[in-house]
Amino acid sequence: MLSIEQKHKIVRRLIKLRIGQIIINEKYRKGSFKVPIHLAFGHEAIAIATNFVRAKGDFLVLSHRNIQYNLDSALSLRHHIHEYMLSPTGTSHGKHGSMNLMNPREGIVYTSSILGNNLSVGTGLSLSQKIKGLENSVTFVVTGDGAMEEGTFYESIEFSKSNRLPLLIIIENNEWSLATKRHERRCNIELKKLSEAFGSGYSHLTGNNVFHYIDELQKARANALKNLCPWCIEVQISTLGDWRMKTQEHPDGKFVNYHGGPAPTVELAKGIYIENDSRDPVHVISCEFGEEFIRKMESEILNEVKMDIEI
Amino acid sequence: MNYISYINSVISDEVSKREKIVLFGQNISAGSCISGFTRGLKPGERSMIINTPNVENTQTGVGFGLMLGGVSSVFFVKQLDFMLLGMDHIVNTYNLIRKDVPKASFTIMPVVVDSGYEGPQSSCNHLSDFCSISHVDGFTITNKHDADYLLKNEMFRPGFRIISISQRLFKTNIIEFDKEAEAMEGGRMYKYLSGNDALVVCFNFSLPQGLDLCNSLQKKKIDCSLISINTLLPFAWDKVLEVAGKTNRKVIILDDSKSANVSSMALRCSLLENGCVDKMLYLKREFSEEWFIPNPDSFVINHDHVINYLF
Ligand SMILES: Cc1ncc(C[n+]2csc(CCOP(=O)(O)OP(=O)(O)O)c2C)c(N)n1
User: Fold this and answer.
1) How many domains is chain A built from?
2) Chain A CB within 8 Å of residue B69 CB
3) What is the phi-psi region of residue B159: left when phi exceeds 0, alpha when psi lies from -120 to 50, beta otherwise?
4) Which of B182, B228, B238, B174 is CA-nearest to residue B201?
């Protein structure tokens, strides 16, 4: 059970992550970054939960949409922004930019912009922990409902199961792969059944409650270690930041999914809430702690952050 | 001793000296162990030998993951063309991590299926194609001397490379020279004979043909220098040009690869550009439909033709 202090710290991290992303978006809209960035509004709960549950010695392996994990692990928003500006003072000394951003000091040892590649590299990392006798370490790999379509998703589960590797695969299922929704591009894949077919574990997370996610991830981590098998954690996510584009055919505006680039409808002036339902992890914590508490924390963090990056 | 038994014995020796390594591949400690290539390997403590499932893309990613995790590994592959499935990692994953100082080694050891009887698969016989795409170090093993050098110095050197062997040579006696070979460019090319009448330069796996040719010419009192280029990256040809200057400015280039993209052509150009030759013969494969059906596929050099043309 988390204490109230721990919970407050987690809420703080979540709000800080949201504010950090909003500020990056502001700068992105003004043209401050040349590297392509995939923002992750709506992904904060799973990212904070994963970073919280990761133990020292665990590896985390990411993909193109990685800001949610990296920014929360960064020394500061300033370091993160500097990385996007490819400055030597960035988190990764300006060598990786956004889509391949890693931070080995924080256990983020590999990030691939090529869909699926991180799954097999993660499998190898997990095998390296086994060889080194790190019996209490696991490797987390983050993938998406688009990336899991690649053959290596199947192969990596097969390889990890065959070699008794505790690989935790987080599937951020936002239903979208670039501009196609799941049903527009493929059949449904029942991950629970697929996991069962390999004799590996499966958890399904919905609702964006960071504390519930922490609970579930802790269980999944423990089970993967106990049973020495891969564990798929499918997380239902809405990537926020969509907008409506008015065209002749769609005078009321055509829905445009947010994939990457600046999010035109998200602004610092509008505050940290993007949606008023469970699609937004900020809304979910707000229901538990009350809007007043969240707003107060928002303004405190904003002041700190402003001093850090001088905006 | 035949070629494959010798290579197997050196590999056995090297792996037995190392602890915490992973040797992996399909059927590497089962059945014929890739026709003896991987038979009886006993790596040191806390190592693993893994007969993997048939997942080449994932296997390649696993090797890079192990390397990132600080564990050295060798991935043995029954046929070079199977590596096509791992190319994504050889290009994209390696390009991402090659900037950092490697913590461990990852070596892929494919068999080049150049015996011809595999039909279309034998048309993929040029390791350089797999290396040039991303400037990866790649080496061919053609005889006892380069086997010793490459397996002892390269197989577990931190970093990534591909070392390939030739199926055509498996059952043949391993070539051994009376004098120790002169290793040049850090073992990337070797000079085996030092005659003054002509220079024979062999690419890919054509050393046996080159040696045969030198022996034939010797009977006619023509003393040749013999060089084999074992690394497949294009590099500075100065050393070869220097030898050409001492061999009557007569050069014979042999290349048994079937690719259209060959570094032997670069040597040819360099020799001509630098005015290093009076007479040159460039012998390589001519594209043929025969490549795609099973056949003996030997690279036959007409010795009389060489003699008549050059002397
Ligand atoms: C091998 C490969 N194919 C295609 C792409 C192009 N691509 C980049 S992101 C993306 C969508 C991936 O969807 P998903 O994994 O669900 O992640 P999301 O962007 O929705 O977070 C695609 C198709 C790629 N990067 N790599």
Assistant:
1) 1
2) yes
3) left
4) B228
- Give per-10-residue mean pLDDT for chain A (311 aa): 96 98 97 96 98 98 98 97 96 96 97 97 98 97 97 98 98 96 95 98 98 98 98 98 90 92 96 98 98 97 89 57
Q: Is the CB of A174 under 6 A from ligand 1?
A: yes
- Residue to substitute in A63, A178, A238, A259 for testing ligand 1 pocket (most ligand atoms within 8 angstroms of CB): A178
Predicted pLDDT at A311: 57
| Interface pTM, i.e. ipTM | 0.90
Of B69, B96, B99, which has the smallest distance from its Cβ to A124's Cβ? B69
Residue-wise pLDDT for B52-105, tens only, equals: 999 999 999 999 999 999 999 999 999 999 999 999 999 999 999 999 999 999
Domain boundaries in chain B?
3-169, 182-310
CATH number, domain B182-310: 3.40.50.920
Residue type, A176: W
Tokens matching residue B125: 């016989």
Ligand 1 atom nearest the C-alpha of A150 is 1
At B235, the pLDDT band (50, 70, 90 cuts) reads confident
Give the CATH number of the domain where residue A53 resides. 3.40.50.970
CB distance A42 to ligand 1 below 6 Å: no
Assigned fold of B3-169: Rossmann fold (3.40.50)
Question: Which regions of A145-210 does DSSP assign to beta strands (E)?
Answer: 167-173, 176-177, 180-181, 201-205
Compare CB distances from B57 to A112, A120, A122 and report the shortest one's residue: A120
Structure tokens at B283: 């012998």
The closest-lying atom of ligand 1 relative to the alpha carbon of residue A114 is 26
Q: For residues A310 and A19, what is the distance between their CA atoms, to the nearest angstrom?
A: 14
Report the residue from A112, A131, A155 with minimal CB separation from B55: A155
